[in-house]
Amino acid sequence: MRDQRLWTWHVMAGLVILVFLGLHMTIMHLDAIVGIFNPADPHPIAWANVVARARMGFFTVSYIVLLGAALFHGLYGLRNILFELGPGRGVKSVLNVALTVGGVGLFVFGAWAAWAAGVLARTL
Amino acid sequence: MLDNMGHPNRLGVWGWLGGGKWGLERYLYTLHRLTGLGLLLYFLLHIFVTSARAFGPEAWVTSMGRVSGGVFVFGEFMVFGAFAFHAANGVRLVLVELGWAIGSPIEPVYPYRTSVHEQRPLALGIMVVAGLLVLAGGLDFFILH
Known about the structure:
By secondary structure, chain A is an all-alpha fold.
């Protein structure tokens, strides 16, 4: 039952990623064709564009949502692959703890970076 | 669900990497996992590289400078391609999981038809979508820039 619930979250996280990572990829890697959300410079990773996007609350929120969804989707997928290799109960427990702690730690760090970049951008 | 019920997965990595004669969808499954692992590895590094924006313009320029150049451009294109495939195939998997595009249950009368016959057009269509996305990405990465 627990795995069924986690699998449902895995699928739903995938749909969230589809929307927000699709937008991110379009902004970053289809910039010469589509050209959205790069108001200050033609190059998407130019500092002026980074600041312009960081000033928009939408991007801070979308980065944090994408971060959480992608970490869960990716780490749960990795857990499934590793569990299919048939590890013992002890190894499974260690993997569960390591992936959960690692995922939460990365989420806290990445969410802080997105929030701090927004704060910094508004002071410039 | 994940317990092996006393039947350990003796094939290990090759059990999911090799598709044998199980058809196109089985290889899409393998590729879905490989691209997923690649995207996860990239994403974990991406979190640290892009966190530099929280420390100001100098840190950002330095961080981006470390991952610039031909090799990284090609690597990013590979990531874009992996995303295009993983996303398109993921949509297919969701549709199939929800019971769409697999046809209705039928009597098992010879010559047998399986749901693979119903799924195949979706798989091919999704691969065309992924291919078009990769072409658009290649145009943007290597020709328009």
